[in-house]
Structure formats: C-alpha cells, structure tokens
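Hey, can you fold this one?
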Amino acid sequence: MIRLDAPRRDVLRLALQSAVAAAGAYLLVQWIGTGEVFLAVISAVLVLQTNREKTIQTAGSRMAGTIVGTLVGTAALALTNEATAALELAAVMLIMGGIAAWKPGWRYGVVAAAGLAVGSDLGFWETAQNRGIAIFAGAAVGIAAHEAGHAIQHAQNYGPLVARTNMVPLV
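Sure. Predicted structure:
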C-alpha cells in the first residue's frame, strides 16, 4: 500500500472531489437541459476549498456575485445595440471589476455580467435563467462533492477526521 503525506493526500482528495463535482454538474445540467454545461462545471469545481466552511462561503459568494453580475448585465442589455456592444462589454467589466475590488468573493459575477452583455441566440430572460441555474447548480454540486469526501473519510475512519472529532466534545 502506498502511504502519502498529508499535503499530497489533500491534493488527491481535492482532485477526486473536483472530478466528482465536474461529472455531477455535467450530468445535472444535461438532465435539466439549460445548455450551459461549461458554467455549471466551472462553478462546481471552483467552489471546492480545503474545508467545509470555505467551500460553503465560496459558493455563497459566487451565487451573490452571479446575482449582482446578472443585474449589471441586465442594465447593459437595456442599452445594447450592435454599434456599442464592445463598449458596453468593457463598461460591464469595469463595473464588475470595481465591485470585485470592494467584495472579492463576488468576482465570479463577471461571468454572469459578461455572458449577458455579450448575449446569446436565446432571449434575454431565457439566457439569464439558464446561466443562473447552471451556476447555482454547479455550486450546489461542488458543495455536495465536498461533503461526499467527508462521508468517505468518515466511513474509512480517516485519522485526522477522527482526531478532530475527538477534540470537540459533544454539546
């Protein structure tokens, strides 16, 4: 049996969680039928962090950023015409960059804002809905993959998890 030190084990755990999250997000969004598979997969993988609290916090920030980005993208769409599309996209990126400087966790909102500002062949509301669903579904799958990793550790009586559990008395 190969024994790995803790940092390598954590990297392998994160790699496995990323693989599960990516595949899960892909399957979920294919089943839902939004057509925004890439956004779901990226969302699922990018929310994964080294611990539960950071994963949930990152997912919440990504979702909040998506809502803000959708609002900014909506405002840009209200002004859209072919002649000013590049200028509007630049303005959306400037606005979202400023918001991300103030709230770094909302940086992911750039994806939603740019996606809406660039537009799609679908109508605006359908595009916004599909992209929002994909991002939120991906974030949820990422959290689930993180929790599945803990369930596996628990089932295998993983040493660091057992030690942490024993250090915190039941309340």
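The helical segments are 6-32, 37-47, 52-78, 85-102, 109-118, 124-155, 159-167. Let me know if you want another pass with a different chain boundary.
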